[in-house]
Amino acid sequence: MRVLIAEDNPVIAMGLAARLRALGHQPLGPAPDGQQAVALARAERPDLYLFDIDMPRLDGLAAAALLAGEGLRRPIVAITGVDDPTLVDRSIATGVSAYLTKPIDDRELDAAIRLASQRQHELEALEAEAAQAREALADRKLVEHAKGVLIDALGLSEPEAFRRIQRTARQRNLRLADVARQIIDQRELLTPPTREDAR
């Protein structure tokens, strides 16, 4: 796994890089502050962020939030030398998956990276499910609207209108929602002409 380190203490940063290599990961950086961490993340596209919270120019949590806003959300392991409950709350609000207090040993680091990665996969799976559900609901609304167009224009019953949409979808090898969208887009052609249209 490619892990971006952001740590303003060079000795700790070097130690973290060595530990990551020993655990089989590829360390990137280290970045000495949050702004450089953001620049490196944009350039390198790492798999995970290992960010110190208290850094100059831009702290680790702010850097992670900025990257997430740019579509570069990754699993985050936050590290800090301060035992402060408010930092834990802030970390959770930022989407931090694992939180470590210095000094950090290899087992803690390994467990935190595994946990953060697993939580990120779970979150992405939930987001994908939610997106599919939203798409299915939007498709259903389209089909209902198209059925209404066919009922009004052709005097069909609701089951007849739905069967017509299904049949057209099969014949044209399209999704029901695509056929429904075409019907809605062309509803003017299905509407009987009025006296105004005849003039």
UniProtKB/TrEMBL annotation:
This is Response regulator receiver and ANTAR domain protein. The modification 4-aspartylphosphate is found at D52. The keyword Transcription regulation does not apply. The keyword Phosphoprotein applies. PROSITE patterns: ANTAR, RESPONSE_REGULATORY. Residues 123-184 form the ANTAR domain. It comes from Thermoleophilum album. Residues 2-117 form the Response regulatory domain. GO terms for biological process: phosphorelay signal transduction system. Keywords: Coiled coil, Phosphoprotein. One of its GO terms (molecular function) is RNA binding. It comes from the Bacteria. PANTHER family: TWO-COMPONENT RESPONSE REGULATOR, TWO-COMPONENT RESPONSE REGULATOR ARR22. Residues 109-143 form a coiled coil.
